[in-house]
Amino acid sequence: MKKDIVIDTFPLLSTSSLETREWLLNIATEHDYPSGRAVLMEDAWGNAVYFIVSGWVKVRRTHGEESFTIAILGPGDFFGEMAVLDESPRSTDVVSLSKVKLLSVSRESFLQILFQDSHLHHRMLQLMVGRIRQINLRLQMRLSPPAVKLAHILVSLTDSYSQESEQVQKIFNIPLKDLAEVTEISLEETTKIMEKLAEKEWIKIDTANNTINLINYTQLAVLASKI
Hints:
alpha+beta; 4-stranded antiparallel sheet; Crp/Fnr family transcriptional regulator; cNMP-bd_dom; WH_DNA-bd_sf; Env_Response_Regulators
């Protein structure tokens, strides 16, 4: 039920007016998907902006019959905004990694409120600049050791999506193939590094809750900084 959704959990809406947040919640459409379901096909970009209420998704780039993961998004994040703004075709799709609840706001409604609420407009620019900086950082890291690149991804995901109230910071247990692709290292390297991090007790895979627990976040952050 939309009334149970805490709209303040979305960073994009953190500075927008109360009227904006209530209006968006009222006009938004709810979507529930099981794990492994395509939630946005490549020919559907530009129709709406999507907010992740709960769960995790991956963004895949497709080339013919092949596809590879280019981003992992978690609770509170959003996607589809670039296609709404520039209306260009996309060769990407979005697939759920877990059970997912989304809210979608149509292109027309989102553009309407975006230009009415200057705080929302400014906040969206801030977050988009942040994403560009992350892309630039990943480009700089292409020659970094695989362990550094993987630590950077784990720390970035934790910083973005781990709950501050949790005693141990944790993220969704992302499949190793997707983790390898988004890190741009081989599956074999990813498997070995994750095993080594577990041996050092820097991380722990909680299979019961399907999470990666970052037991020693500080050491991971130090490793991630060695670009």
